[in-house]
Amino acid sequence: MALHLKQFPRFLAERRGPVIIGLIVVVVLWIGVAAKHENDVRGALQDSERTTHNFAMVFEENVLRSIGEIDKSLLYMRRSIENRAGKEDYATIVNTTDLLSEIIVQVAIIGPDGVMRASNAGPQPPPATDLSDREHFRIHVETSDDVLYISRPVIGRASGRVSVQISRRFRGPDGEFGGVVVASLNPSHLTRFYDKIDLGTPASISLIGSDGVVRSSGGVGGGFGVGADLTRTETYRKIRSGRSGTFTLTMPDGAESRLVTIRKVREHPLWVSVSVPESEIYKDSRATLRMDALTAAILTLLVGIAVEKLLRIEAKRSEAEARVVRLASLDPLTDLPNRRVFRASLEAMAETARATPEATFAVMFLDLDRFKIVNDTLGHKVGDHLLQAVGDRLAAVLAPGQLLARLGGDEFALLVPRAGGRDAIEALARRIAAAVLPPFEIGSHQIRSSVSIGIAVGPADGGSADDLLIAADLALYAVKGGKRGTFRFYDRQMSEGLEERRQIEADLRRAIERGELELHYQPSVTLKSGEIAGFEALARWRHPERGNVPPSLFIAIAEECGLIHALGEWSLEEACRQAATWPERLKIAVNLSPVQFSGPDLVGMVRGVLERTGLPAHRLELEITEQMLLDSGEATLAILRELKALGLHVAMDDFGTGYSSLNYLRSFPFDRIKVDRSFVTGLGTAAQNAAIVRAVIDIARVLGMRTTAEGIETADQQRVLALLGCDEVQGYLFSRPVPAAEVRTLIGRWCPENRKAKTLAA
After folding, report:
1. DSSP per-residue codes, 386-439
2. 576 contacts 610 by C-beta, under 8 angstroms
3. Confidence grade of residue 247 (pLDDT, cut at 50, 70, 90)
4. How far is 64 from 72, CA to CA, in rounded Å?
5. What is the residue-averaged pLDDT of the chain?
């Protein structure tokens, strides 16, 4: 209806009631749009601050792990040099150091005169390159402190590439300064991790030294160049204050301002920086404002027909376009939705949940356990086929509407709308875990695996996609830090637990370097004679503040962060050194971690320990768990055969607690089977336990192996085991684990008159 301007007052007068109501509705509508936009802006800023803080935490963790891996290898090189007592077989040392090529440009050894003596890059032997003027050499000449030095980015004189030099000093045969071991870090490695976790936020990240010089930089636009000097910038003034935090940075030359979070890297003179442009922070709120304004305008102008036409036009993706979208949305290996689709679906679901908080949904991160071992030992082709088979099994247990995606590598993710209660989510997680457990037939290989699952529940665990992804990742991290092949729900304490775990890791690293750990020894007793047959070495850590730290905790952390190699070598050498002072008839048993089997030259390490301590090989017994064989199979057996060839003994610990495979007893000649304490506990009260123990003893006897029962606490248990024909026993009935200083006393007073083990086989 057309209305002339002069007629409007009369029109208004005639329809005053409806017009006023209409005006009130329109005014309230636009006030609501403005208030909602203000709230969205405030929420967007808070979300961005939380996201950059979380990214900074993850970036710091990546830097710590990378530097820790490099330092572990530098310490290994230093120990190798100092143990050779001046033989200076430097070429062998640098070429056997286990560092990934994409991380490290070069590993080198510099003599006390500053001349490079050995390098794993370039011609062999390397030219006599003078590095005496280099900062990473001078720092160790000018101070006698044992420090890990991290240089500014420089162009390597040997490698010719930009790198960050990480170095430590070592001692010569005379105990004085003997030179420097150095690893040249590829700066881009420290920021390349962002490409793996990027889920849509265009952040830029940098690693900055406390001197204001950028060590590494990456991400999307706005980062600082590698080697840039920031001493005249606002960022450096914040660093000088010594406090981590978030601030708005005004960029030079009229460039867009950025929100910046800086965080101090623990124990190193380094800072991580994560920044995002302000336009990115408010992008969603501005888009929402445009949509709200459009909606308000549509309601005000009553142009529903135009909206209907627009929706009809948008509902039309030609067949060709649909095909292109499909190809861009699928993982090429498994044909599952990819990371981009998963992220978009999660964002949409999180947005819906903000409007209807009662709509519960779940996010699951799935990680295939021991996949790296399969890839490394059987090849990438077998690994790819395994990932495809896993994807098929997982898809088969899902209900319609549940979105399974492959994020990359061996990582999968699952989005579960209308997830229901916790019981329903647990049931789904159990079905997923059970689906992966049966062996996979990949070509001629039978591969066993399991899946670890981290679960976040929305919107309770996070209102945004980023919050939920971080929550699910922390839950998965907790599973990996405990028992793999299971699942965990996120809880708020995990964030605190992660910080505590990191602190324990740092304390453990220092404890190993300073020799603060010790071994206790528990005797095993021969049932027939009642004599001590030997001792088992058990690691103990008395923390100056926490007290006694359980071995199950610090060994798990050592396995996860790679310290287990140094801890394992120290434990083996200390145990062999002590045992060499005992009577020759006594043996020493030392446990091996599964992680040690994937480390650098386990056989060579054991051979070197025996040579240095002088302990005869037949007095050493290495213990491995049954589960270790089930996880890695032939790869572990191959290493065990090499160890057995040294003349030592090998025992299977905790036999019968996993999915036992008698094939391994036939394919490898174990010297001993250790009966787990869970079977010993019920002896004398549960006939089933006695039957199981008898079966294990009979199997061992037929195969020519000896048996040791663990956890003996009562005389009845000892009596039953003697009647069943067990060879040796170990437990608190005879002795608790004792420090090394008490072992000789225990041996001396263990005589026929007062020994606790009675001769029962007669």
Report:
1. HHHHHHHHHHHTPPTT-EEEEEETTEEEEEESS--SHHHHHHHHHHHHHHHSSP
2. yes
3. confident
4. 12
5. 83
